């Protein structure tokens, strides 16, 4: 899931000031689960904004242009009447909504990470979309998102009793977790293997199959 | 065997027991104090580590300070290089500059995370990790290329060392990591500060088969207050109660002048005893003496170790 958190209402309220009418787009997938952009949150924001609000729609997955088209169709008039959209979804959803509507997008959420949800309020970052998944070699532990330094060859000198120096020794050191997992799987040879520098060039990616 | 470019490596290879010290460039444009400390240390050590922004504080560049120390104090530098602030382009570039200007030893490490430092919003780079930095140096020195295989004009003359932490818990992960770095071609290990002889012995035994010289790190403290701060703020170092008690005992006097002397004597005895004992029981290439504004103890410990060793031989 894409984990998001709400921007404070005051921030959103300040952002909408220059606009006459705004429409709210929520997300029926990740942001609904995070309780940041579901039906309840979209409705609540619409009420707080009051008269300026042209309406709201919770799009099943606003990051998908086809679904945007389908789910915004019934609200065509309200969307058209607004000069800006408040997006209660992740950055990808917000930009897709901008592309689809051609209107100014006011992000209502902050996108945090790709993560695991244990329960509402417990979210754990699990992937940085590195483009070359190596968790088979790391006991199923992602070093890019779970090691504060994204190291590829074992823990740094900052781990103490399996805890990470970053954040005051609260979080588990990813590489001690990886070591223990591989040890349990009797695959320590994989830990000891040298992993050469990765391609970290991170060019903007667009996949277009013609 | 690879060619020796530095005094540090030549002396280690000749079987001489080596002492290294450490200086930390500050957030300053002045090099005078640095040069003075280096000169004082230079009388007792073969080479001096120059730290690379420890605790992620933005200080004077370790490479610039290393060059100053070599040229103005005449002391060989071990230039510390972290992976924290530079990607592989910048690291390659600094290594070329280091080699060109006569810096012959680097100590590579990942480096404390920026969030612990004085610019906590800085981007953590870590494009390479310390193992990959060993590979970078090896490629530059042995193959005459950078990591991508691009040719370098001129010979790169640099030795690469790595850090190890004998206090690490779990220790087996630390050892596995060092084994890999030894296989990659790291040429020496300098360790985090050790206060406890058993901790040092356990570590030396574990890395003994890797065929890589080890300099055990020690950190004499000039007051119990400093020792307590280290115990509290650097969780990777274990300061035993016994050492703290001895420091407090030495401080338990009214006369300030004799307190200083008693603390120095206590540190001299404690560490020279520990190091000479280790030299007897384990394979040890040298000792790396760190300290917080405590340069004067370095010579005393080095002399103390040598005295104890010559007594034993006789
Ligand atoms: S290694 Fe980590 S960042 Fe890369 S794809 Fe796998 S989980 Fe994601
Ligand atoms: S302590 Fe572990 S998780 Fe934290 S930065 Fe170091 S290696 Fe990564």
UniProtKB/TrEMBL annotation, chain A:
Residues 107-200 form the Methylene-tetrahydrofolate reductase C-terminal-like domain. It holds the Pfam family DUF5981. InterPro entries: DUF5981. This is Methylene-tetrahydrofolate reductase C-terminal-like domain-containing protein. It comes from Methanosuratincola subterraneus.
TrEMBL record, chain B:
It comes from Methanosuratincola subterraneus. Gene3D superfamilies: 3.20.20.220. The lineage of its organism: Archaea, Thermoproteota, Methanosuratincolia, Candidatus Methanomethylicales, Candidatus Methanomethylicaceae. Pathway: One-carbon metabolism; tetrahydrofolate interconversion. Transmembrane segments: none annotated. One of its GO terms (cellular component) is cytosol. This is 5,10-methylenetetrahydrofolate reductase. One of its GO terms (biological process) is methionine biosynthetic process. InterPro entries: FAD-linked_oxidoreductase-like, Mehydrof_redctse-like. Keywords: FAD, Flavoprotein, Oxidoreductase. One of its GO terms (molecular function) is FAD binding. Belongs to the methylenetetrahydrofolate reductase family.
């Amino acid at each position: 899931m894409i984990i998001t958190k709400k921007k404070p209402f005051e921030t959103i309220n300040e952002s909408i000031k220059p606009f006459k009418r705004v429409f709210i787009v929520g997300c029926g997938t990740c942001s609904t689960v995070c309780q940041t952009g579901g039906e309840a949150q979209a409705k609540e924001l619409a009420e707080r904004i009051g008269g300026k609000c042209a309406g709201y729609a919770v799009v099943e997955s606003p990051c998908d242009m086809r679904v945007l088209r389908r789910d915004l169709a019934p609200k065509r008039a309200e969307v058209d009447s607004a000069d800006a959209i408040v997006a209660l979804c992740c950055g990808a959803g917000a930009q897709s909504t901008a592309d689809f509507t051609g209107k100014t997008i006011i992000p209502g959420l902050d996108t945090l990470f790709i993560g695991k949800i244990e329960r509402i309020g417990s979210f754990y970052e699990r992937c940085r979309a590195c483009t070359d998944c190596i968790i088979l070699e790391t006991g199923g532990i992602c070093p890019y998102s779970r090691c504060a330094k994204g190291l590829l060859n074992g823990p740094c000198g900052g781990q103490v009793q399996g805890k990470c120096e970053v954040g005051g020794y609260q979080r588990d050191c990813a590489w001690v977790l990886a070591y223990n997992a591989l040890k349990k799987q009797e695959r320590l040879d994989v830990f000891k293997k040298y992993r050469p520098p990765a391609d970290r060039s991170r060019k903007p990616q667009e996949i277009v199959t013609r | 065997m690879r060619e020796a470019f530095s005094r540090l490596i030549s002396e280690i290879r000749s079987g001489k027991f080596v002492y290294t010290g450490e200086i930390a460039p500050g957030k300053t444009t002045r090099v005078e104090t640095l040069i003075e400390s280096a000169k004082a240390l230079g009388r007792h050590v073969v080479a001096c580590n120059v730290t690379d922004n420890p605790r992620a504080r933005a200080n004077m560049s370790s490479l610039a300070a290393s060059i100053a120390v070599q040229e103005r104090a005449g002391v060989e530098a071990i230039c510390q290089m972290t992976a924290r602030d530079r990607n592989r382009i910048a690291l390659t570039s600094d290594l070329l500059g280091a080699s060109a200007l006569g810096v012959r030893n680097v100590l590579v490490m990942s480096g404390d995370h920026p969030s612990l430092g004085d610019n906590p919003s800085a981007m953590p780079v870590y494009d390479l990790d310390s193992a990959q930095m060993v590979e970078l140096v090896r490629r530059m020195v042995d193959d005459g290329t950078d990591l991508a295989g691009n040719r370098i004009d001129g010979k790169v003359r640099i030795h690469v060392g790595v850090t190890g932490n004998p206090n690490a818990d779990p220790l087996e992960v630390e050892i596995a990591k060092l084994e890999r770095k030894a296989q990659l071609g790291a040429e020496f290990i300098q360790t985090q500060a050790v206060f406890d002889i058993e901790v040092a012995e356990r570590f030396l035994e574990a890395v003994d088969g890797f065929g890589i010289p080890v300099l055990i790190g020690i950190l004499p403290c000039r007051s119990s207050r400093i020792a307590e701060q280290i115990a509290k703020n650097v969780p990777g170092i274990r300061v035993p109660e016994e050492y703290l008690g001895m420091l407090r005992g030495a401080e338990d006097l009214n006369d300030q002048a004799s307190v200083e002397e008693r603390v120095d004597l206590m540190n001299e005895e404690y560490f020279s005893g520990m190091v000479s004992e280790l030299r007897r029981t384990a394979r040890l290439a040298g000792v790396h003496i760190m300290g917080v504004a405590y340069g004067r103890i370095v010579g005393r410990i080095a002399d103390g170790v040598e005295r104890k060793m010559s007594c034993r031989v006789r």
